Amino acid sequence: MGLVGLAGGALLVPVADTYGLLLCSVFVLGALYGTAIPGTNKAIFGNVPSGRQNLAGVAVADAQQRDSGQ
């Protein structure tokens, strides 16, 4: 299902004739990408400490603060 859905989403993108259809196509493509390539997601998730998981926005803010010297 994952690779078939990924292929279907990829085929929908170039034929999207409206912005809304493009957004829907990209949503389908992104949603099914995780099911098609689970090893990459597991490798990334496995290397993040459990206290920092699901905090991508916080990590970006921390890095910006650190880089600005605050």
Quick take:
This protein has 70 residues and is mainly α. It has helices at 2-15, 19-36, 38-46, 56-68. Helix 1 (2-15) runs antiparallel to helix 2.
Shape: flat
Low-confidence stretches: none
The arrangement of helices and strands along the chain is: HHHH
* Major sheet attributes: none
| Estimated share of beta-strand residues | under 5%
Task: List the total number of helices.
Answer: 4
Mean pLDDT: 77
Number of separate domains: 1
Number of strands: 0
What class do helices, strands and sheet pairing give?
mainly alpha
Q: In whole angstroms, how far apart are the ends?
A: 48 Å
Helix fraction, binned, reads over 70%
Gyration radius over CA: 17 Å
Q: Would you write up a description of this structure?
A:
With 70 residues, the chain is an all-alpha fold. It has one domain (2-68). Helix content is 77%, strand content 0%. It is built from 4 helices and no strands. It has helices spanning 2-15, 19-36, 38-46, 56-68. The model has no long low-confidence stretch (mean pLDDT 77).
